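Posting this for the archive.
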Amino acid sequence: MARVTSADVARESGVSRTTVSYVLNAKHGVTITEATRLRVLSTAERLGYTPSAAARTLRSGRSDLVLCVLPNWTVGPVIDALIDHLTTELADHGLSMLVYNGRSNRPLAELWRAVTPCAVLGLGAFTEADAQAMRRAGIQVVGSALDEDPHPEIFVVPQANIGGLQVEHLAERGHRAIAYAAPADDRLAAFADRRLRGVVAECERRGLPAPVVERVDLDVASAVAAVRGWRSGDEPATAVAAYNDEVALAVLSGLRAEGLRVPEDVAVIGVDDIPTARLAAPALTTVWQAIDAQASYLVASVLAALDENVEPPQRPDDVFHVIERDST
């Protein structure tokens, strides 16, 4: 079905396209009778006319679209929640969000040139070439990173700190031999490798043995194999820091299958505080992430980039903390 254009509205209304443009864009300084205005609006509604995004961009000098670039990550509860918060808060400011998943082979430049966004929000780092090209095109660029970044405009969610918090919590409860449950999905390596570095660094800082690392898929057999690996050797692990809550829940299943008690024999801590964490048996200790605060900061950064009169936001302080439950 052909798209309805302003020419169709003009023809049906018996007026010029210029008049249609003046009415639909509420042009000031021109005289149009109320009868004509109502006829144009009524015809546009009856025909189902909507102005194109490109046309709106040309008229206003800026689109209302924010392109959110998601790297090739799995989309679990946390990313889902972040995207939901971003979409809602941007909509509250009259902005729409389009999510681009980095698993596509399409070059990013092709996409932003096609959709003409007012800003591009990266949930991971952009290449310098991509960032410069977008800025040259007048597009505001807002980025985030998983490690400390020297650029003050980059929002940092330091993943190593999560691993450090896990070890701190377990060590303060007397555990020396701490294992690490890594995810089996390689797409999570950007997060998992950094969290593991935090675990290793905190173990070293406290004079604890290096953690034994096992990859755990989300099934009992994989978890059982990991548990057997952790419990063998001269100093069996008495605690497990898991990559996230889903991996931690698999670990709990593996421990049960091996007849081990949690936390009496082995303590377990996850990350993310997903809803099922509190329903586990025993309820799962986890590292909570301030997803809503992260989303608010990123939205405020976009608004500040678009309007020089808007003050850049202050970075949130309480981004992570441990929620203690029965599993530790």
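The domain at 6-51 is CATH 1.10.260.40 (434 Repressor (Amino-terminal Domain)). The chain has three domains: 6-51, 65-157+292-316, 159-289.
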